[in-house]
# Entry
Amino acid sequence: MGKTMAINAGSSSLKFQLIDMPAETVIAKGLVERIGMEDSIFKLEWGTDSVFKLIQPILTHQAAVELVLQHLIEQEILSDIKEITGAGHRVVAGGELFKESALIDEQVIEQVASLAEFAPLHNAAEADVMRAFKRVLPDITMAAVFDTSFHTSMPEVNYLYSLPYEYYEKHKARKYGAHGTSHRYVGRRAAELLGKPFESLKIITCHLGNGASISAIKDGKCLDTSMGFTPLAGLTMGTRTGDIDASIIPFIMKKEGIQDIDAMVNIFNKQSGILGISGVSSDMRDVEQAAAEGHHRAQLALDIFVNRVQKYIGQYVAIMNGVDAIVFTAGIGENSKETREAVIEGISFFGCHIDPVKNDTRKEAIVSTDDSKVVVLNIPTNEEVEIAREVERLK
Ligand code: ADP
# Structure
């Protein structure tokens, strides 16, 4: 019972939702962007259409947290800060340490900070934000909810790379995956909608946003997922390469005169994927529009995106020896009926068929035909609610 903050901190941003639990209704939400700069932006939304916006220097995550809490009172969204009884912090990298969400104490904060080498842009900021919340609200239930924990059920055969084994033993170099909170949420929700136990199903969840990943979920557990050691692997994404042959790294570095390996990795993270192929944009809507206007490389980017999703679905059908449901979620998955249709119709061999009428939706729905052997669902993800649920569970 009470109001719970679901917090998602990045290197220069802080997103949050204040959620009334257990009703799961959103009371307010907002974000602080460009933390550390002179023109940081703070935006707060609540009620039916109330919005407050501020541009001012917000130099640290601590300052961002204080500003958010101050304005929850000033805008009369809360009458007392003590109405907040819980906070859930999304953490990108939990490594092998965190197989589940964890109640936050100083040791957990230090462990999150120590995992920063797996997620340099995120974990350090997340640890800072946890400390900031602890200072202002020392007595509430605070939980760390890890993007990776749902994937810790992966067996060795799926998380190990075919590298000298000692790299795993010495450095924990292996696949960790990401988006786990979303995969778990939509997977469970699919089981609810199908009226079957989560533990009895084979589900493929396609989280297709700017970052994109696919998971194979068998018996309620993640069996495999497409992101890797970092979120760079797997599908073609907005600006990320997805899977590539590592030999291309020294090849391009030599040809392009790139000296610094970090600069190369940065290109793989920020200038590749749909942006790199199309040359138009990383945003699917822009690329779809350009393709509709006859832009060849935009069309090619869309085709490659769909092709990679199909290949992963094929792999996951194979390793699960079947599939009961395929779920689409996140920005592209939820909103682009064209993408859902293109993916599913190209793999109809598996016994899945889209119903064009049912598929004309952005809401939670079964979008396959009644006689489709594999049920296809559109399920808007809700990572914030999943985080707030974890806080409640640990109270
Ligand atoms: P992330 O959380 O990884 O930043 P999102 O889940 O918000 O990403 O997804 C962003 C992507 O969703 C963008 O590529 C955007 O173009 C795409 N998207 C949003 N609405 C639509 C739509 N109506 N049709 C196609 N793509 C869409």
About this structure: The chain has a mean pLDDT of 96. The radius of gyration is 21 Å.
